[in-house]
Amino acid sequence: MPRSKIAGIGKYVPANVVTNNDLTQYMDTNDEWIQERTGIKERRYAHRTEETTTTMAAEAAKIAIERAGTTAQEIDFIVFATLSPDYYFPGCGVMLQRALKMKEVGALDVRNQCSGFLYALSVADQFIKTGMYKNILVVGAEKHSFGLDMTTRGRNISVIFGDGAGAVVLQPTEKTDQGILSTHLHSDGESAEILAMYNPGTHANHWGAQNYADFDDAPIANMFMSHAMIDNAQNFPFMDGQSVFKKAVVKFPEVIHEALTANGYQSTDINMLIPHQANLRISQFVQAKLKLTDDQVYNNIQHYGNTTAASVPIALCEAWEKGKIKEGDLVCLAAFGSGFTWASALLKW
């Protein structure tokens, strides 16, 4: 059975840089407060009307396809991870297929938030291994900026997130010292609501509703998105940051150790760890727990914020472009996020 390898990788981040000081125009915050809690100095925001999750994905995909030495017409499957699709439906997979003028290939959308890219990579890896497909485009892309509460009320969440896209092309390889060694996926929905965007949804506003009486006499169609939801700021994400942090610093190291153990390695063998860029403090905690040096971990949340499903491929691409990942290196990818879901992948570059 062949392994799958990352044959090409690309990233795209919007030109618009938004600093911590820029955010003080909208909310009561400051650069010191944001950096102390998250490590973030700036992030990128997509153009409100000219850039979408799909257009950013297309730019990253073009680079990955070119670097893989193939063409859009030779891609035979798409796996697209995002929590911020262009439309409620259809998903971004078909939008990307159209944007790149591909043939009529299959397109799968993955909704695993921060772990989305690793879940997508795992799915694509299986398709390559079984021989079903030969050139799979795996994408993580997010346009968070259009859905954030840019007020003091929402600052604990809004200062964290940014926009961008990353993509890889997976191809089979017969080399025994190259490719994805294993992927590891987990979930625990017991505390799903402590990091979630409740509305719009089909739960009839059970989660996040401030006043059920607002909806009792409303037409059923108005319960999907109502004036009451907007008035009560129920159409924005919710996060219990401390609870998320406590869970993440446990599950991150666990799933990394799982990947290493499955392949007979120890943390000291890692050449490069690419953690999902959730929070610099989480990454630093994981680094210390695994006893890794600064040269073994790549973080870029300082400049891009948390780009959720896009954060792993963006960081992986940037680390490779800077020469920090070389052929033969042992690379570990890991993520933790809403759901909760968490995942890891171990590969030989």
Structural notes for this entry:
The chain is built from 12 helices and 13 strands. The model has no long low-confidence stretch (mean pLDDT 93). It has a 5-stranded mixed beta sheet with strand order 1-7-6-4-5, sandwiched between helices. Strands 8-13-12-11 form a 4-stranded mixed beta sheet, sandwiched between helices. Strands 2-3 form a two-stranded antiparallel ribbon. The chain is globular, with a radius of gyration of 20 Å. With 349 residues, it is of the alpha/beta class. It folds into 2 domains: 3-173, Peroxisomal Thiolase, Chain A, domain 1 (3-Layer(aba) Sandwich); 179-192 and 239-348, Thiolase/Chalcone synthase (Peroxisomal Thiolase, Chain A, domain 1, 3-Layer(aba) Sandwich). Helices cover 32% and strands 22% of the residues. The protein has helices at 20-23, 31-38, 53-67, 92-99, 116-129, 155-158, 213-216, 227-231, 241-262, 280-290, 301-304, 311-321; strands at 3-12, 17-19, 42-44, 77-81, 106-110, 136-142, 164-173, 179-187, 195-196, 238-239, 272-275, 330-337, 341-348. Strand 4 (77-81), helix 4 (92-99) and strand 5 form a beta-alpha-beta unit.
